[in-house]
From TrEMBL:
PANTHER family: PREPHENATE DEHYDRATASE P PROTEIN, PREPHENATE DEHYDRATASE-RELATED. It is an enzyme of class 4 (lyase). CDD domains: ACT_CM-PDT, PBP2_Sa-PDT_like. The record marks 177 as: Essential for prephenate dehydratase activity. It comes from Alteribacillus persepolensis. Pfam families: ACT, PDT. Gene3D superfamilies: 3.30.70.260, Periplasmic binding protein-like II (3.40.190.10). The keyword Lyase applies. This is Prephenate dehydratase.
Length: 294
Protein backbone atom coordinates (compact mmCIF):
# COMPACT_ATOMS: atom_id res chain seq x y z
CA UNK A 1 0.00 0.00 0.00
CA UNK A 2 1.32 3.42 -0.94
CA UNK A 3 1.58 6.19 1.66
CA UNK A 4 1.91 9.94 1.16
CA UNK A 5 5.11 11.57 2.37
CA UNK A 6 5.62 15.27 3.14
CA UNK A 7 9.11 16.79 3.02
CA UNK A 8 10.77 20.20 3.28
CA UNK A 9 10.71 21.38 -0.32
CA UNK A 10 10.86 22.52 -3.00
CA UNK A 11 12.21 19.57 -4.98
CA UNK A 12 15.96 19.08 -4.74
CA UNK A 13 16.27 19.55 -0.97
CA UNK A 14 18.34 17.27 1.23
CA UNK A 15 15.11 16.26 2.92
CA UNK A 16 13.61 15.13 -0.38
CA UNK A 17 16.73 13.05 -1.02
CA UNK A 18 16.36 11.46 2.43
CA UNK A 19 12.64 10.77 1.89
CA UNK A 20 13.31 9.19 -1.52
CA UNK A 21 16.14 7.12 -0.12
CA UNK A 22 13.97 5.39 2.47
CA UNK A 23 10.53 5.49 0.88
CA UNK A 24 11.38 5.31 -2.84
CA UNK A 25 8.06 3.95 -4.07
CA UNK A 26 5.81 6.41 -2.25
CA UNK A 27 4.47 9.75 -3.45
CA UNK A 28 6.32 12.69 -1.89
CA UNK A 29 4.86 16.19 -1.46
CA UNK A 30 6.93 19.35 -0.82
CA UNK A 31 6.13 21.77 2.02
CA UNK A 32 7.54 25.27 2.28
CA UNK A 33 8.67 24.99 5.91
CA UNK A 34 9.58 22.33 8.44
CA UNK A 35 6.59 23.42 10.54
CA UNK A 36 4.16 23.15 7.61
CA UNK A 37 5.48 19.69 6.85
CA UNK A 38 5.02 18.53 10.43
CA UNK A 39 1.58 20.14 10.63
CA UNK A 40 0.59 18.19 7.50
CA UNK A 41 1.38 14.93 9.29
CA UNK A 42 -0.42 16.12 12.43
CA UNK A 43 -3.58 16.90 10.44
CA UNK A 44 -3.41 13.69 8.34
CA UNK A 45 -2.83 15.64 5.14
CA UNK A 46 0.12 13.29 4.63
CA UNK A 47 0.78 9.91 6.24
CA UNK A 48 4.44 10.57 7.05
CA UNK A 49 6.52 13.76 7.42
CA UNK A 50 10.29 13.63 6.84
CA UNK A 51 12.20 16.45 8.54
CA UNK A 52 15.85 17.12 9.51
CA UNK A 53 16.61 16.68 13.22
CA UNK A 54 20.36 16.83 13.71
CA UNK A 55 23.53 17.60 11.77
CA UNK A 56 27.02 16.30 12.52
CA UNK A 57 28.57 19.78 12.16
CA UNK A 58 25.85 22.11 13.31
CA UNK A 59 23.96 20.07 15.91
CA UNK A 60 20.21 19.89 16.42
CA UNK A 61 17.65 21.48 14.14
CA UNK A 62 15.89 23.32 16.94
CA UNK A 63 12.88 24.12 14.78
CA UNK A 64 12.09 20.41 14.48
CA UNK A 65 12.81 19.56 18.10
CA UNK A 66 10.81 22.48 19.48
CA UNK A 67 7.83 21.77 17.24
CA UNK A 68 7.77 18.18 18.50
CA UNK A 69 8.14 19.29 22.10
CA UNK A 70 5.80 22.27 22.19
CA UNK A 71 3.35 22.08 19.28
CA UNK A 72 2.30 18.63 18.11
CA UNK A 73 2.91 15.22 19.58
CA UNK A 74 3.61 13.24 16.39
CA UNK A 75 5.54 10.05 17.13
CA UNK A 76 8.95 9.45 15.57
CA UNK A 77 8.50 6.20 13.60
CA UNK A 78 11.94 6.02 11.97
CA UNK A 79 15.21 7.81 11.43
CA UNK A 80 17.70 7.88 8.60
CA UNK A 81 21.18 9.42 8.51
CA UNK A 82 22.50 10.59 5.16
CA UNK A 83 25.78 12.15 4.00
CA UNK A 84 25.54 15.85 3.15
CA UNK A 85 27.66 17.49 0.45
CA UNK A 86 27.32 21.26 0.13
CA UNK A 87 28.22 22.94 -3.16
CA UNK A 88 28.35 26.53 -4.30
CA UNK A 89 26.26 27.18 -7.41
CA UNK A 90 25.33 30.09 -9.63
CA UNK A 91 23.10 30.89 -12.58
CA UNK A 92 25.01 29.72 -15.71
CA UNK A 93 25.07 33.35 -16.95
CA UNK A 94 27.23 34.20 -13.92
CA UNK A 95 29.66 31.29 -14.05
CA UNK A 96 32.72 33.51 -14.57
CA UNK A 97 31.87 36.29 -12.12
CA UNK A 98 30.80 34.23 -9.10
CA UNK A 99 33.67 35.44 -6.88
CA UNK A 100 32.43 39.01 -7.10
CA UNK A 101 28.80 38.26 -6.31
CA UNK A 102 27.45 39.95 -3.22
CA UNK A 103 24.72 37.69 -1.82
CA UNK A 104 24.70 34.13 -0.51
CA UNK A 105 21.41 32.27 -0.20
CA UNK A 106 20.81 29.02 1.69
CA UNK A 107 19.24 27.24 4.64
CA UNK A 108 20.74 28.32 8.01
CA UNK A 109 22.14 24.82 8.62
CA UNK A 110 23.93 24.84 5.26
CA UNK A 111 25.31 28.34 5.88
CA UNK A 112 26.63 27.20 9.26
CA UNK A 113 28.16 24.03 7.78
CA UNK A 114 30.16 26.19 5.34
CA UNK A 115 31.23 28.90 7.78
CA UNK A 116 34.99 28.68 7.03
CA UNK A 117 34.43 28.73 3.29
CA UNK A 118 32.13 31.74 3.51
CA UNK A 119 34.51 33.61 5.81
CA UNK A 120 37.51 32.93 3.58
CA UNK A 121 35.92 33.43 0.17
CA UNK A 122 32.86 35.61 0.66
CA UNK A 123 33.59 37.87 3.62
CA UNK A 124 32.15 40.76 1.60
CA UNK A 125 28.78 39.10 0.91
CA UNK A 126 25.38 39.43 2.60
CA UNK A 127 23.93 36.20 3.89
CA UNK A 128 20.26 35.42 3.24
CA UNK A 129 18.68 32.63 5.24
CA UNK A 130 16.16 30.65 3.22
CA UNK A 131 13.62 28.01 4.19
CA UNK A 132 15.66 25.38 2.35
CA UNK A 133 18.76 24.95 0.20
CA UNK A 134 16.60 23.96 -2.77
CA UNK A 135 14.53 27.14 -2.45
CA UNK A 136 17.78 29.12 -2.62
CA UNK A 137 18.79 27.21 -5.77
CA UNK A 138 15.36 27.69 -7.34
CA UNK A 139 15.38 31.44 -6.63
CA UNK A 140 18.85 31.85 -8.15
CA UNK A 141 17.78 29.94 -11.25
CA UNK A 142 14.69 32.10 -11.72
CA UNK A 143 16.53 35.40 -11.14
CA UNK A 144 19.85 35.70 -12.99
CA UNK A 145 20.04 39.35 -11.88
CA UNK A 146 19.95 38.53 -8.17
CA UNK A 147 23.73 39.09 -7.79
CA UNK A 148 23.82 35.94 -5.72
CA UNK A 149 25.09 32.41 -5.23
CA UNK A 150 23.32 29.47 -3.60
CA UNK A 151 24.62 26.73 -1.34
CA UNK A 152 22.76 23.50 -2.04
CA UNK A 153 23.25 19.91 -3.19
CA UNK A 154 24.08 18.51 -6.63
CA UNK A 155 20.49 17.37 -7.20
CA UNK A 156 19.26 20.95 -6.83
CA UNK A 157 21.98 22.23 -9.22
CA UNK A 158 20.84 19.69 -11.81
CA UNK A 159 17.13 20.24 -11.29
CA UNK A 160 17.35 24.03 -11.55
CA UNK A 161 20.06 24.19 -14.23
CA UNK A 162 22.68 25.87 -12.04
CA UNK A 163 26.44 25.65 -12.47
CA UNK A 164 28.44 24.29 -9.51
CA UNK A 165 31.50 26.55 -9.18
CA UNK A 166 32.94 25.07 -5.95
CA UNK A 167 32.36 21.51 -4.79
CA UNK A 168 32.34 20.25 -1.19
CA UNK A 169 32.47 23.56 0.62
CA UNK A 170 31.34 22.22 4.03
CA UNK A 171 33.97 22.74 6.69
CA UNK A 172 34.27 19.16 7.93
CA UNK A 173 34.37 16.01 5.81
CA UNK A 174 32.13 13.80 7.84
CA UNK A 175 29.01 15.88 7.26
CA UNK A 176 25.85 13.88 7.93
CA UNK A 177 22.29 14.82 8.79
CA UNK A 178 19.87 12.70 10.73
CA UNK A 179 16.29 12.94 9.47
CA UNK A 180 13.25 11.63 11.30
CA UNK A 181 10.04 10.17 9.95
CA UNK A 182 6.96 11.32 11.88
CA UNK A 183 3.54 9.74 11.72
CA UNK A 184 0.44 9.27 13.83
CA UNK A 185 0.31 5.65 12.62
CA UNK A 186 2.99 3.01 12.99
CA UNK A 187 3.32 2.63 9.15
CA UNK A 188 4.66 -0.90 9.57
CA UNK A 189 3.76 -1.83 5.99
CA UNK A 190 5.58 1.14 4.43
CA UNK A 191 8.70 0.59 6.54
CA UNK A 192 8.74 -3.20 6.35
CA UNK A 193 10.83 -3.36 3.11
CA UNK A 194 13.48 -0.98 4.48
CA UNK A 195 16.39 -2.59 6.31
CA UNK A 196 17.42 -1.16 9.64
CA UNK A 197 20.49 -1.56 11.81
CA UNK A 198 19.15 -1.01 15.32
CA UNK A 199 16.31 0.61 17.20
CA UNK A 200 16.17 3.64 19.41
CA UNK A 201 13.78 5.21 21.87
CA UNK A 202 13.68 8.97 22.35
CA UNK A 203 12.44 10.27 25.70
CA UNK A 204 11.70 13.80 26.86
CA UNK A 205 12.37 14.22 30.57
CA UNK A 206 11.65 17.05 32.98
CA UNK A 207 13.55 17.08 36.25
CA UNK A 208 11.93 17.74 39.60
CA UNK A 209 12.71 21.35 40.50
CA UNK A 210 15.64 22.23 42.78
CA UNK A 211 16.55 18.63 43.45
CA UNK A 212 20.32 18.32 43.70
CA UNK A 213 21.75 15.38 41.80
CA UNK A 214 18.49 14.81 39.85
CA UNK A 215 20.21 14.53 36.47
CA UNK A 216 22.76 12.16 37.96
CA UNK A 217 19.91 9.95 39.23
CA UNK A 218 18.21 10.06 35.84
CA UNK A 219 21.38 8.90 34.13
CA UNK A 220 21.88 6.14 36.73
CA UNK A 221 18.47 4.70 35.87
CA UNK A 222 19.83 4.00 32.36
CA UNK A 223 23.36 3.14 33.46
CA UNK A 224 22.63 0.31 35.89
CA UNK A 225 20.34 -1.30 33.28
CA UNK A 226 23.27 -1.08 30.80
CA UNK A 227 21.14 1.00 28.42
CA UNK A 228 23.43 2.97 26.13
CA UNK A 229 22.53 6.61 25.45
CA UNK A 230 23.42 8.00 22.02
CA UNK A 231 22.35 11.58 22.67
CA UNK A 232 21.41 13.87 25.51
CA UNK A 233 20.38 17.42 24.88
CA UNK A 234 18.64 20.12 26.87
CA UNK A 235 16.04 22.41 25.31
CA UNK A 236 14.39 25.37 27.04
CA UNK A 237 10.91 24.74 28.40
CA UNK A 238 10.20 28.37 27.40
CA UNK A 239 8.77 29.05 30.85
CA UNK A 240 11.76 30.85 32.36
CA UNK A 241 15.53 30.97 32.59
CA UNK A 242 16.94 27.70 33.86
CA UNK A 243 13.88 25.60 32.96
CA UNK A 244 14.90 22.78 30.63
CA UNK A 245 13.69 19.55 29.10
CA UNK A 246 16.22 16.81 28.54
CA UNK A 247 15.88 14.87 25.30
CA UNK A 248 17.53 11.48 25.62
CA UNK A 249 18.08 8.90 22.86
CA UNK A 250 18.42 5.34 24.13
CA UNK A 251 19.94 2.64 21.91
CA UNK A 252 17.10 0.25 22.71
CA UNK A 253 13.60 -0.39 21.42
CA UNK A 254 10.59 0.00 23.69
CA UNK A 255 10.20 -3.35 25.45
CA UNK A 256 8.22 -4.81 28.32
CA UNK A 257 10.93 -4.57 30.95
CA UNK A 258 13.90 -2.20 30.60
CA UNK A 259 12.40 1.01 29.24
CA UNK A 260 9.18 0.74 31.29
CA UNK A 261 11.47 0.11 34.30
CA UNK A 262 13.43 3.30 33.58
CA UNK A 263 10.24 5.31 33.17
CA UNK A 264 8.79 4.00 36.45
CA UNK A 265 12.06 4.80 38.25
CA UNK A 266 12.19 8.33 36.79
CA UNK A 267 8.57 9.00 37.67
CA UNK A 268 9.24 7.83 41.21
CA UNK A 269 12.00 10.48 41.36
CA UNK A 270 9.44 13.13 40.43
CA UNK A 271 10.48 13.45 36.76
CA UNK A 272 8.02 13.93 33.92
CA UNK A 273 8.58 11.49 31.05
CA UNK A 274 7.18 11.61 27.53
CA UNK A 275 8.06 9.07 24.83
CA UNK A 276 8.75 10.88 21.55
CA UNK A 277 9.10 7.58 19.71
CA UNK A 278 10.59 4.12 19.59
CA UNK A 279 11.77 3.44 16.06
CA UNK A 280 14.17 1.73 13.65
CA UNK A 281 17.35 3.43 12.36
CA UNK A 282 16.74 2.90 8.67
CA UNK A 283 19.44 2.13 6.12
CA UNK A 284 19.21 3.96 2.81
CA UNK A 285 21.00 1.88 0.24
CA UNK A 286 18.92 -1.15 0.89
CA UNK A 287 15.55 -2.27 -0.02
CA UNK A 288 15.21 -5.81 1.27
CA UNK A 289 16.99 -8.36 -0.94
CA UNK A 290 14.78 -10.25 -3.36
CA UNK A 291 13.69 -13.62 -1.94
CA UNK A 292 15.85 -16.51 -3.19
CA UNK A 293 13.77 -18.62 -5.62
CA UNK A 294 12.93 -22.07 -4.28
O1 LIG B 1 17.50 22.85 3.06
C1 LIG B 1 17.45 21.64 2.79
O2 LIG B 1 17.76 21.16 1.69
C2 LIG B 1 17.03 20.72 3.85
O3 LIG B 1 16.55 19.66 3.56
C3 LIG B 1 17.37 21.10 5.25
C4 LIG B 1 18.81 20.78 5.44
C5 LIG B 1 19.74 21.76 5.27
C6 LIG B 1 21.09 21.45 5.42
C7 LIG B 1 21.48 20.17 5.72
C8 LIG B 1 20.53 19.19 5.88
C9 LIG B 1 19.18 19.49 5.74
Amino acid sequence: MSVSVGYLGPEGSFTEAAANAVLPSHKCYPYATIQACMAAAASDEVDIAVVPLENAIEGSVNMTLDYLIHKQDIPIIGEVTVPIQQHLMVHPDNEHIWKSMNNIYSHPQAIAQCDDFITNTFSHANIHYMNSTSLAAKDISENPDMDGVAIANALAAKKYGLKIVQHHIHDYDNNHTRFVLLSKQEQKEALQPVRHEKEKTTLMITLPSDHSGALHQVLSAFAWRKLNLSKIESRPMKTGIGHYFFIIDVDHAMDDVLIPGVIAELEALGCGVRILGSYPCLLTETVKAKPIPE
